[in-house]
Amino acid sequence: MDDLLRDGKDNLAMQALAPLSRTYLPWSGYAMRPSGVVKVLNEMVINQRSVVVECGAGLTTFYIAGLIQQQGKGHLYTIEHDPEWIAVVRGLLVQGGLESYVTLIHAPLVDCELSLEGTAWYDRAVIAQVMGDRAIDLLVVDGPPAYDLARQYARYPAAIYFQSQFAPDFAIVLDDIDRLGEQHILAQWQEKIPGLAVKQLAIDGGVAICSNRSGFSVS
Ligand SMILES: C[S@@+](CC[C@H](N)C(=O)[O-])C[C@H]1O[C@@H](n2cnc3c(N)ncnc32)[C@H](O)[C@@H]1O
In order of start, what are the domains of the chain with their CATH numbers? Predict the structure, then answer.
């Protein structure tokens, strides 16, 4: 029954996403679920998020860029560790005429003192060089890969690193919230990030969305 409900939501989400792609997109188990992508885009439209940082490139990159093009405002900074995957994503963006809306940042995974349990994170020097102290109002966390126990907290540093750059009204989307590792990360963020008194917490499509303001619901 749960599977049927989930499939139904994803089918509906694919219909909602259809106007943003005219070419074939390589959906796979790596991608955020379609109903999760819809939550991200809803957050951008309904709560007016325009400067977006994304950890982990893929189909989310394509859809966020497509929405930015359609809305006529904003920019996406996508952080990715794998240069070969960046080339694939860049190809999709070029095919869709979307490359000018995205800055693809190749940041290798390195030791990071912000990490829990010493997991590697994106090279902060590379990120800082590209982004400076630019304010952001949406952080989408779907990387680095965290599917095995040894890397279950791999995504923790994202919100800690970017907290000094959050706009007065910001939101964070964390994918894979069905996993214990991500649930622990979310709890830690709520403890450690001043203002992230989760006034809006939507859990659906595999993503958790939290914000420092009540905002409008995206579910
Ligand atoms: C969970 S995926 C990120 C997916 C992306 N946000 C999306 O929704 O498509 C995490 C990492 O897996 C890798 N990855 C993504 N898609 C892949 C694919 N189809 N095959 C191999 N690796 C992939 C990339 O390095 C990416 O940063």
Answer: 2-18+33-211 (3.40.50.150)
